[in-house]
Amino acid sequence: MTTPPAGARLRLVIADDQASVRQGLVLLLDAVPDIEVVGAAADGEQALDLVAEHHPDAILLDLHMPVLDGIGAIRRLTARPWTRSGPARAATSRRTPTTPRSPGRWARR
């Protein structure tokens, strides 16, 4: 992930396995003048492919996805030298016993 130049739009990749949530986020965030959604993925693997293709400034990940979840995607992203500069942040609307309290910190072991 990169830092956008001053005045540039924030380039964003969104990943959520629920199509309605993913599509809603794309519509909502793409309408913000300072944000450009450059890709939307249904799982963490697709998100990683989009990151490699588009080099976004930020990624919005759901923690609970099939194939590769948000924590696994963060782990892989932070292992890449060109993505280590930015902080990792993740969010979920679901709380389960396996959801870590601080996913960004937990994923950076």
- What is the CATH level 1 assignment? Alpha Beta
Q: How far from one another are the termini? A: 19 Å
Let me know the largest β-sheet: 3 strands, parallel
CATH topology term: Rossmann fold
Number of strands: 3
List the uncertain runs: 102-109
Mean pLDDT: 79
**Rg, nearest Å:** 13 Å
| CATH-level-4 superfamily name | Response regulator
* Structural class by helix and strand composition: alpha/beta
Spatial order of strands in the largest sheet: 2-1-3
In the CATH classification, which architecture applies? 3-Layer(aba) Sandwich
What is the molecular shape? Answer: globular
Helix-strand pattern: EHEHEHH
Give the tally of structural domains: 1
Descriptive notes:
The structure is a single chain. By secondary structure, the protein is an alpha/beta fold. It has one domain: Rossmann fold (3-Layer(aba) Sandwich). The chain contains 4 helices and 3 strands. It has a 3-stranded parallel sheet, with helices on both faces. Strand 1, helix 1 and strand 2 form a beta-alpha-beta unit. The longest helix is centred in the N-terminal third of the chain and has 12 residues. It is globular and about 35 Å long. The two termini are 19 Å apart. The C terminus is likely disordered.
Helix and strand topology:
Blueprint: E1 10-15, H1 19-30, E2 35-41, H2 44-54, E3 58-61, H3 70-79, H4 103-107
Parallel strand pairs: 1-2, 1-3
Helix pairs in contact: 2-3
